[in-house]
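Sequence, please.
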């Protein structure tokens, strides 16, 4: 099942994508929350009620997918957790090439740094060094702490696509990356969430490709994560409690712009960046300069 968030004149709605149509769940049930996180909390990660609601929805609840004004798949994630340095070839192309990490590199983003499918990723006025990073995103379905390898996958509601845009100049100013990772509207998230049952366990073995203006810049497979989904969840929940609606960026493969030779490649005004993950979808964002 593909669950999509979108904007309407009446506010934020949720829908289920079927082919080239969307079933507007808030027309089927006007009391339904418009934020997937709220539904995950209500039902302890069980999305069967949404599937049942979609089946019962009247014909009037159907609308074309074309022309939809997309919102974030999770409107208000409680936490945005990110993994860095999770593909070996990406580690080798950066400043940590001689310091291969032995543990997951965890940092955080804020919600204001995210932008939905087909909305602009904003190149900030402060720097031209806006880089693309195609990533698989994990969406937490139920509260989890001290997960084990045996039960880690039970906390996952589904997966989405991310473009973890990074302002490299500011990322490199200090040993802490958060400034360069949190400029407003620099991180794409969408177009929807695909429920975990639609994909291989831990979303392993999926092709991931990033294209800038149609040119392939990154091409890899989620099977090549240094710290796969299960291992990462076990590690993270030793310390932090994951809550329904939290999202996790799982790291980017090699081919990023800052490592391009002879000259780096930055996202610029007028560019189109697409990230495609097999079985999940295509996240597409135009690039726009920050307004004065």
């Amino acid at each position: 099942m593909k669950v999509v968030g979108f904007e309407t004149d009446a506010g934020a709605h949720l829908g289920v994508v079927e082919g080239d149509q969307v079933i507007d769940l808030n027309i089927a049930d006007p009391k339904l929350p418009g934020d997937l996180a709220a539904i995950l909390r209500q039902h302890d990660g069980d999305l069967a009620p949404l599937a049942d609601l979609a089946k019962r929805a009247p014909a009037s609840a159907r609308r074309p997918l074309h022309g939809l004004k997309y919102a974030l798949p999770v409107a208000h994630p409680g936490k945005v957790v990110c993994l860095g340095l999770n593909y070996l070839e990406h580690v080798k192309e950066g400043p940590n090439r001689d310091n291969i990490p032995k543990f997951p590199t965890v940092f955080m983003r804020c919600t204001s740094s995210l932008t939905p499918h087909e909305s602009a990723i904003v190149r900030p006025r402060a720097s031209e060094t806006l880089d693309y990073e195609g990533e698989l995103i994990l969406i937490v379905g139920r509260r989890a702490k001290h997960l084990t390898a045996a039960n880690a996958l039970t906390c996952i509601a589904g997966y989405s696509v991310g473009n973890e845009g990074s302002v490299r100049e500011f990322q490199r100013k200090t040993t802490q990356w958060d400034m360069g990772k949190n400029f407003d509207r620099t991180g794409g998230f969408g177009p929807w969430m695909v429920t975990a049952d639609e994909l291989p366990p831990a979303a392993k073995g999926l092709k991931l490709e990033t294209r800038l203006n149609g040119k392939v810049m990154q091409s890899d497979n989620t099977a090549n994560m240094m710290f796969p989904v299960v291992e990462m969840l076990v590690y993270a929940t030793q310390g932090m409690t994951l809550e329904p609606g939290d999202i996790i960026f799982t790291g980017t493969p090699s081919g990023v712009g800052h490592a391009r030779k002879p000259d780096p490649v930055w996202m610029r005004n007028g560019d189109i960046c697409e990230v495609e993950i097999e079985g999940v979808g295509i996240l597409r964002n135009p690039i726009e300069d920050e307004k004065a």
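Residues 2-64 form one domain.
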